[in-house]
Design brief:
100 residues
Length: 100
């Protein structure tokens, strides 16, 4: 899952792997803005189907990670499964946690 997100978004490993559960719960769907007038019809349709999660990137800047519906579903299952099965410490705040 982590590898798919990195390749889909063409991001650094450190940016995507440090996605926090709180960041994932704050995901947003891009709305129509002035930017849409510069997009093609295909790009506007893609924006309607993708969600965006803001994570902290290099040097403290915010980086957008785009999620498809399949990524959203997989990540929500991952967050629920790892938090409830006892294999991840309760103090862990990351989506991609290191198992104990």
């Amino acid at each position: 899952m982590l590898t798919q997100l990195i390749l889909f978004n063409r991001r650094r490993v450190g940016e995507v792997s440090k996605m926090e559960v709180a960041d994932f719960h704050k995901l947003s769907v891009p709305t129509s803005t002035d930017v849409n007038q510069h997009l093609t019809t295909l790009e506007i349709k893609l924006c309607a189907t993708l969600s965006r999660v803001e994570v902290v990137g290099k040097c403290g800047t915010h980086v957008a990670v785009l999620l498809t519906a399949a990524f959203r579903k997989s990540l929500s299952i991952l967050v629920v499964a790892t938090s409830s099965d006892g294999f991840v410490l309760p103090s862990n705040s990351f989506v991609f946690a290191q198992l104990i």
